[in-house]
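Box S1 | Example of a co-folding query
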Amino acid sequence: MKIIEIHTPTQDSVISCETGCFLRHAPEFLAGHQNFVLTDSNVHALYGAQIAEVFADTPVYVLPAGEENKNRENLFAILQAMIDAGLHRNSYLFALGGGVVGDIGGLAAALYMRGIHCVQIPTTLLAQVDSSVGGKTAVDMGNVKNVVGAFYQPEAVLVDGTFLKTLPAREIRCGLGEIIKYGALNPLILDSLLENADRLFDLDYLSEIASDCIQHKSEVVQLDEREQNLRKSLNMGHTTAHALELNYGGLSHGEFVLIGMYYESKIAVAEGLATAEYAELLSGLILRVLGEVPRYAGLEKAAESARLDKKNAASDEVSMIVPAGYGVYAELKLPFEKYRDYLVRFAGK
Ligand code: NAD
Ligand code: GLY
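Box S1 (continued) | Returned holo structure for nicotinamide-adenine-dinucleotide
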């Protein structure tokens, strides 16, 4: 078993990465408390029997699956169910599911009695390598993603590769988006991805590389929990990804992260920050996952969305974290018109 720790001023988090750790370790948190399990309808349909076996009489709240359910109405419904279940300050909330369950469950744990124990049990690849680690919790409001939330570190994260066996291929691609992002931030992860380029969809390899990604993220979060500097690097590719996701949709978040990295690496080359050879190397990995990268008509609206991105410090610029060298990143701030022209040139139909 690989154990990774994150120490922040408010919480010590222990992340266990091991096949079978859900069944083995979840019961350790149950003793003597009134607890609560949050999951979603798809995960419950697949793992309801295991959940019942591990958590016995603990109330299980089943959220309808899907991003549209990560909203304030469901957040308050979950909090009401926690009150009805008689949870107290020493209770544990187990968030067992993908990033949607982890984000809304983490926020419910942060809010209930100003904070109860939270254990994240991520069941998608994306949640295992990214969203369950680092304490970002949130719900969406209206069209704005993750606009209401809190930093709230879980006490434990149980990363069990067994869950990946039931994941559809699209969800694997989604997680690979974040994994390749870690490769572009960390030369050792990039070495491994290039050496194992033929095994990107092999679940044993994914569990192995997931723990390296978690290790990388944990070190970043420990140094900069509140995203004042270093943690911004974890948003690589995300400026263009979010802008395209908002305006075109139809693909998963992680697929858009790959598309964002693909086009932002071309911008980095045009700006003299990366070599064309390096951009080609990253593009090769991205194409192995996506097959092809879409091009878009009418990109002006997407460029406008990038201009409104909350990561920008000024209204007439677009800020991005771009690939700059082998496992190295750079922060790039472009005047809006320049960004728009690059986007149309590289991603336009
Ligand atoms: P998700 O939670 O919607 O899960 C994707 C789909 O997979 C759902 O239909 C779910 O029911 C299903 N599923 C989950 N586990 C399964 C399993 N083992 N087998 C079969 N199906 C399974 O989406 P996601 O991609 O896990 O997470 C996306 C969310 O995470 C977004 O809301 C995003 O904003 C958030 N996120 C948060 C952070 C963070 O740091 N907190 C980082 C990245 C993304
Ligand atoms: N997913 C980016 C972060 O956790 O900071």
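The chain has a mean pLDDT of 96. The two ends are 48 Å apart (CA to CA).
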